[in-house]
């Protein structure tokens, strides 16, 4: 069979600027799902990768790992999807299938995961992401988009949503009334607020400025809002939170946030700081506090967050843009000027 030639938008160097790029997809194997990309969310990780801030970028790089598409072709062994179904792909498109993490259905922690883009596929070629017209993905790494969910709403759930959901799931059904902190109100943070609220937690947003106060309290339904630079406000909130979901994509002083936690409270890092973070051991010891990390979520959890979203009738706040706006959109993301997630209308951008 002939390999399909597709058009994506790629970064060529560490300027991170995206422009049209033509490449071929692999042939459809028996386990593969081929889909036309409808929408793709824009994540801060894309920016880290496009600019080689994590020092592992191979160019040309077609980003995009919050991909929603419509199935156009199925491999001979694929039973769980039909042509025209809406499907989703998140951050990973492969794993070894044999290690303990894979066997325990937490394949995101497999040492041999294949990232949706900037990864190396089994055939030795670079993987390319959802800022492109068509994708071919192994069915194990494809989820079903519930019918009730609009595709552009579903897109951010596939990375940002499951990143907030996976660590918060441990608190689901807790008998205690939990006090949650969401640090950084961006793409991941705003979904974190909605998920924590839907789980019944009392939610405090901790933000770097006052700019998002009204939106956080009125649009997202947060219960309280703290400005991290307001020392008096931070002091009053000391020892009040059971956990903090830390989504900040930059170096930030952990000693400002650890005092907010109660005894046995947990700071969960999901934001990727490009340089090491520092903390004082005393801040953990006195209060038996914990710092943990969490990486996206499993395929099972990705399906779960989609169902959770549909069942609870939640709505994320997205700004849908066309591909010719993508560089501008990343520039605005960097300036913290998006409420709260850009979603690319890929199909509507007529890439071909
Ligand atoms: P985003 O939309 O840019 O949001 C980040 C938020 O953090 C901003 O809205 C801002 O909120 C705050 N912030 C930004 N710069 C800051 C600074 N210098 N100091 C303090 N606060 C700052 O980014 P995102 O897409 O949500 O991603 C957040 C981070 O999570 C990124 O590092 C991304 O790579 C990472 N991530 C990790 C995973 C994972 O699996 N662990 C998955 C997805 C994303 P305020 O205006 O409220 O301060
Ligand atoms: Zn594995």
Account of the 3D structure:
There is one protein chain. This protein is α/β, with parallel strands linked by helices and 352 residues long. It folds into two domains: 208 residues, Medium-chain alcohol dehydrogenases, catalytic domain (Quinone Oxidoreductase, Chain A, domain 1, Alpha-Beta Complex); 124 residues, 3-Layer(aba) Sandwich (Rossmann fold). It has ten helices and 17 strands. Strands 3, 4, 5, 8, 9, 16 and 17 form a seven-stranded mixed sheet that branches. Strands 12-11-10-13-14-15 form a six-stranded parallel sheet. The protein has a two-stranded antiparallel ribbon with strand order 1-2. The protein is globular and about 65 Å long. The chain binds NADP nicotinamide-adenine-dinucleotide phosphate and zinc ion. The site of zinc ion has 8 residues, from helix 2. This is Enoyl reductase (ER) domain-containing protein. InterPro entries: ADH-like_C, ADH-like_N, ADH_Zn_CS, CAD-like, ER. Its cofactor is Zn(2+). One of its GO terms (molecular function) is oxidoreductase activity, acting on the CH-OH group of donors, NAD or NADP as acceptor.
């Amino acid at each position: 069979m002939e390999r399909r030639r597709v058009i994506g938008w790629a970064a060529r160097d560490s300027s991170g600027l995206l422009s049209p790029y033509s490449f071929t997809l692999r042939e459809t194997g028996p386990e593969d799902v081929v889909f036309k990309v409808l929408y793709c969310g824009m994540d801060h990780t894309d920016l880290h990768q496009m600019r080689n801030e994590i020092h592992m970028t191979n160019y040309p790089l077609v980003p995009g790992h919050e991909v929603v598409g419509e199935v156009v072709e199925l491999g001979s062994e694929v039973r769980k999807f039909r042509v025209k179904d809406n499907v989703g792909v998140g951050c990973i498109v492969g794993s070894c299938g044999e290690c303990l993490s894979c066997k325990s259905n937490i394949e995101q922690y497999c040492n041999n995961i294949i990232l949706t883009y900037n990864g190396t596929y089994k055939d030795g070629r670079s993987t390319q992401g959802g800022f492109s017209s068509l994708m071919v993905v192994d069915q194990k790494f494809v989820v079903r988009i519930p019918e009730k969910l609009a595709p552009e709403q579903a897109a951010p759930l596939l990375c940002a949503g499951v990143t907030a959901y996976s660590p918060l799931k441990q608190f689901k059904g807790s008998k205690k009334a939990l006090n949650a902190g969401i640090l950084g109100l961006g793409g991941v943070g705003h979904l974190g607020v909605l998920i924590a609220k839907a789980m019944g937690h009392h939610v405090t947003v901790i933000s770097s400025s006052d700019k998002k106060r009204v939106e956080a309290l009125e649009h997202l339904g947060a219960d309280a809002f703290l400005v991290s630079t307001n020392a008096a406000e931070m002091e009053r909130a000391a020892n009040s939170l059971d956990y903090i979901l830390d989504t900040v994509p930059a170096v930030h002083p952990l000693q400002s946030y650890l005092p907010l936690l109660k005894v046995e409270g947990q700071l969960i890092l999901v934001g990727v700081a490009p340089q090491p973070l520092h903390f004082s051991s005393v801040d953990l010891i006195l209060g038996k506090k914990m710092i943990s990390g969490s990486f996206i979520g499993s395929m099972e959890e990705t399906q779960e967050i989609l169902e959770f979203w549909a069942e609870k009738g939640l709505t994320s706040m997205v700004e849908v843009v066309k591909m010719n706006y993508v560089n501008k959109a990343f520039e605005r993301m960097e300036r913290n000027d998006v409420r709260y997630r850009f979603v690319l209308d890929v199909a509507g951008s007529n890439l071909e």
